[in-house]
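Pipeline run #58 for the internal structure catalog. This entry was flagged by the ingest filter as a single-chain record with no existing model, so it goes straight to prediction. Upstream metadata was stripped on purpose; only the residue string is passed forward. Reviewer on rotation: M.T. Logging verbosity set to normal.
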Amino acid sequence: QVQFVESGGGLVQPGGSLRLSCAASGSILSIYAMGWYRQAPGKQREWVGSITDGGRTYYTNSMKGRFAISRDNAKNTVYLQLNNLKPEDTAVYYCNQSPPSASAIWGQGTQVTVSS
């Protein structure tokens, strides 16, 4: 099963931007859709958005217009561009197949903190 390592998080001010990376241990070429998820303390993990093998993207309404997902199959990497960040975006961000399987293996995620 493919495993994922997230990176690129950090501390930014409201309105700032970050680009997160998701490196896969194997090829993602055969994966129909990859997704980004996030989890804040005390809350359940939520779906942020997805990208298909053809590059079609989907987002939640709260993310639409601010976040952008892309993928580079040659590098086995998926990206999440975060723009106009808000404090409520603070969370640990994860990537995985979308939808994740019942036996999905989750990485450590990368922390995004939005604060002034």
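catalog note: The two ends are 40 Å apart (CA to CA).
catalog note: The chain is about 0% helix and 45% strand.
status: ready for reviewer M.T.
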